[in-house]
Amino acid sequence: AETGGRAGVMAEEAIFDFIHMEAVSYAFQGGEKMSEDEAISKLEHMGFATGYRLVERLTRESGRYKDELDIMKYICKDLWVTVYKKQIDNLRTNHQGVYVLHDNRFRFLSRMAAGKQYLQYAPRYLAFTCGLVRGCLANLGVTCVVTAEVTQLPACKFQIQVQRG
Amino acid sequence: MAVAGNYYFAIVGHHDNPVFEMEFTPANKEPKKEDHRHLNQFIAHAALDLVDESMWTTSNMYLRLVDKFNEWYVSAFVTAGRIRLICLHDVKNDDGIKSFFMEMYETYIKHSMNPFYTPNSPIKSAAFEKKAHFYGRKYLTG
Asked: Which UniProt keywords are present, listed alphabetically (chain A) (predicted)?
């Protein structure tokens, strides 16, 4: 649904929000048969497959990156703008393979009450994105683990741990 | 007028595996002997090391000429997703090869968007082969 940023086209954003919400409901409908971890893992895998294919298409315009930091900046700027219509607000790194991406108003959390009311449900809405980032990086040649942390909606942090060696 | 030449085109996946291969010969020549096929694969595979080396020196996708073996030149094109498109040719045809690579890149992107296609697996689509034939005729052999 995210076919680049055509100004004024709002319909595709709503569709993406709704499909994501429904995907989360669907993953969790297993009830007692499926644990929370399995459902989150399903969503993460969906994100991974999506990100892996998506990045091949999106990089057609932006070209190749030689540096790991350039790749991370691409994720924070171009990818986030294409998928979530905004940039990552803050990128931190320890220059040893750990990157933390701060999003102060994450799109999928912005429709819920701000604060701590829905904190326990927040991880469900971050799983797909963790997978998306992991998939994009995997196809760009960076093997990593992506986790997310929320302390107060709608802000969240994505942590990327690059696997070396 | 492009000089008529022979071309061998291959798309190489992340594990140095061929994902797609196709040969192009000029329309007026009769088909070549079979043993050239193995030699082409050998030359392309040997060139992968040089492709990997030169892809770090530039952020262009089109790497131009990376290797030469006897009378065969090897040109390469690398995408951001590190899919390598290799073309063996015995005549210089920079513009034609670049256009061919760009078109095959587009075709590959469309094919990789198919949810039933596993990345890095062999491409067995008749539509893809048709496109490759078409662009080969248009930009390579004429």
From this structure: Endoplasmic reticulum, Golgi apparatus, Neurogenesis
The CA R_g of chain A, rounded to the nearest whole Å, is 16
Any A CB within 8 A of B48 CB: no
Say whether the ipTM exceeds 0.90.
no
Q: Are strands B18-24 and B7-12 parallel, antiparallel or unpaired?
A: antiparallel
Q: DSSP letter at A105?
A: T
- Identify the H or E element spanning A134: helix A127-139
d(CA B4, CA B29): 9
* Cα end-to-end span (Å), chain B: 9
pTM equals 0.86
| Identity at A115, one-letter amino acid code | G
Q: Are strands B84-89 and B62-69 parallel, antiparallel or unpaired?
A: unpaired
Interchain contact A46–B (C-beta under 8 A): no
